[in-house]
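Hey, can you fold this one?
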Amino acid sequence: AAAGLVLNVMVGAVLIAIMLRMGGAVPSVLATWFVLLALVCAGVPLFERHVARVGITASNGRRLRNIRIGFGAVMATFYGVAGFLLPGEGTQVHDTFLFIIVSAMVMVATLGYTVMPLYYVVLDAVSLVPLTGRFAWQFAVSGDNYYLLLTVVAIVWQVVVLLKARRVSLTAIGAIELNQRLRDEIEEHDRTKEMIRHMALHDVLTGLANRRYFEDM
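Sure. Predicted structure:
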């Protein structure tokens, strides 16, 4: 899972880097952006191996989850600031292409982490929200109605996706909780059955095996 996530992030980063370079981004700044993102991505498999080694328990589950969300938030932040690496006002093509890549990344995260709503909400907040702000700023500066359209589309897209993702998350979490309750009930039923069997085959006062136990054996 970690390898697939890192691969998706890096493929998107390569596409963004190509687009930014074509848009006139400073090569040294672009290289720094890409290297820092790659370093963060390299930390994800290391963290996953650490989790596999220590295991997930009731005491460390929340902390491990928050660290994992932190990794995703940092990676998404690099996507969110990518548009600000373009010199001047950029072009409609570059901004549109950037929106497509970032929104696709948020969608993949939403589908892959439906049981962790906080994860994809944070990713949206640090990637698409800044990008939407850039579109609004571009419209305010240039008066180009295309950026107004991009701003509206970005806002509507986020609202629609997050609302639908919330419904899916509630369904997925509810299924997990139901499955756990069923497992608990089955375990409780097994314990009750064993207790009844023990009472039937042992003396209540002494706890020793009775005649029926002897006959069964």
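DSSP finds seven helices and no strands in the chain. Let me know if you want another pass with a different chain boundary.
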